[in-house]
């Protein structure tokens, strides 16, 4: 398979569904010769802590801690499948990813639609937002890798 997927962004978090999406994105990148970028959005402190009222040094420390933990997670995941890590930060993950995809010139975004009902009701569906607003094609990966597919490592 060769195609127009020169730059492939795969949106990940720490879920099993996202791990399967990363595996599928890796297979697409390998088949097309495209560059694979693993994208993770760390929440802003206001999203994580529930608003900006009463911000203090502790809030800034929380932001640094969130970014550090997210960066370590992302680096580990990217190393596992030989991808380039991209760490974003934003209160709305879908908006952050779509803005990045536009700036980066992505040809394909891969994501896993797996958020629960409560999260969808309160902040909306990440996969739904990305599928409507992305500047490129979007592949929603459901479930595990196809039978017989293997990943490095």
Strand order of the largest sheet: 3-2-1-4-5
The CATH superfamily is HUPs
The general outline is: globular
Q: Secondary-structure element sequence?
A: EHEHHEHEHHE
Helix content: 40-55%
Structure annotation, total helices: 6
CATH topology: Rossmann fold
- What does the radius of gyration come to? 16 Å
By secondary-structure content and strand pairing, the structural class works out as: alpha/beta
Largest sheet: 5 strands, parallel
The appropriate CATH architecture is 3-Layer(aba) Sandwich
CATH class: Alpha Beta
Fraction of residues in β-strands: 15-25%
Number of domains: 1
Mean pLDDT: 81
Spatial separation of the terminal alpha carbons: 23 Å
Question: How many β-strands, per DSSP?
Answer: 5
Oligomer: single chain
Tell me what you see in this structure.
There is one protein chain. The chain has 153 residues and is of the alpha/beta class. It has one domain (7-140): Rossmann fold (3-Layer(aba) Sandwich). The chain has 6 helices and 5 strands. It has a 5-stranded parallel β-sheet, with helices on both faces. Strand 1, helix 1 and strand 2 form a beta-alpha-beta unit. The longest helix is centred in the middle third of the chain and has 24 residues, at 57-80. It is globular, with a radius of gyration of 16 Å. Residues 118-123 have low confidence and may be disordered.
